[in-house]
Amino acid sequence: MCLGVPGKVLSIEPNAVGVTMGKVSFGGVTKEICLAYTPEAQIGDYVIVHAGFALNRLDEAEALEVFELLKEMGEREAWQGEASA
Amino acid sequence: MRFVDEYRNEADARKFLTAIERLAVREWTIMEICGGQTHTLIKSGIDRLLPQQLTLVHGPGCPVCVTPLELIDRALAIARRPEVIFTSFGDMLRVPGSARQTFEVSKTSKVSHGARDLLGVKAQGDDVRMVYSPLDAVKLAQKHPDRQVVFFAVGFETTAPGNAMAVWQAKQLGLANFSILCSHVLVPPAMEAILGSADNQVQGFLAAGHVCTVMGYWEYEPIAERHRVPIVVTGFEPLDLLHGIYLALAALEEGRWGVENQYSRSVTREGNRAAQKLIGEVFEVCDRQWRGIGLIPASGYRLRPAYAGFDAELRFGVTDMTAQESSLCIAGQILQGLKKPHQCSAFGVLCRPEQPLGAPMVSSEGACAAYYSYGRMGNVKRGA
Q: What is the DSSP string of B366-381?
């Protein structure tokens, strides 16, 4: 149930009671999403969405961390391979 | 899709598997908390690719699984009322109430004549609707002022900001015809309960990434310290899970404990403050019954007195309904990581997704349903 799907913010506007809403695209499918909990999100940002609510803005730099770790592991392996050769 | 596809890359997954293989020396048991993580692990086959020393057990993070049976009965009783439009996320609609298990209906219950779940109630002509968001239920209440709209508000911390916002908005809009049937549960007290159990086998945790997106992970630091376990906040894609397992395993082999954050693209230590603020405005912490596990102190949310007017249990007078669990179902042991689904005598025989005995076989996130759907049958013949 705690499913969260990343989507791209297309528009931002308040609703009738002043709550920030917006259109968010999920790989082309657009839905109206509550953006009240992500006041920092700008148009073009990616947010993680659960049951109609954006729970956070996705951090692009942090998102690359795992790939840096993989690269490091690959380099270490290559080095160890050379050392043992 | 961005932030999804790159975390499903097979070549990168193999790199992690090689690294995990190298790291694993001793035998370890790691629990992933969230049912969504269980589903990814089983669907992608990670459970079968890990070294034998490593056992993954599946945690209680499936709201459908831990919602008490009597709450399902209360939902069914409310949904049968002619003035009610009963709204829910899809996965609660197929959870059977107690009527089919005991073949007896309690005097206070209005559930009868074979309506064993919310879909059954709908099939009999009552107004049950699946919604995507709790705000859809608020919209329905605005659209139908002559009807009572009830939302089945179950879930962990991830779902709480949405449910809090729905109740808060209903109050702002002065909606007298909106209420929620609330059964919110919290992860950290459940982890404490598992670690504090005399039978505990869990040595490390993959914490639930979206729960921590909302709440942060500072609450987990004292748990890791007290029980000397590594807790890795982990995401939901195959690479996230492999990375989380890698970090937990490295900590275990090196004798370290503490909290690490694998899912840093979404999670910060303090979490989402704006969401926590509205949760605190609408809800307060209470003791909760967990299906199959029992009462865990301070492990859930209920509406604050200022919002009691939105409590469906009070509005429809169903608080005295109780229910008896099936004696065959061992969901409690499965949810605590003490047993695997195929070790249950009913698994795949008396209990199947199309005819579930217990909730973990109903929800697509339930460990039993995942094991059944992806062929982790042990010695059980499917549909025997």
A: SHHHHHHHTT--TTPP
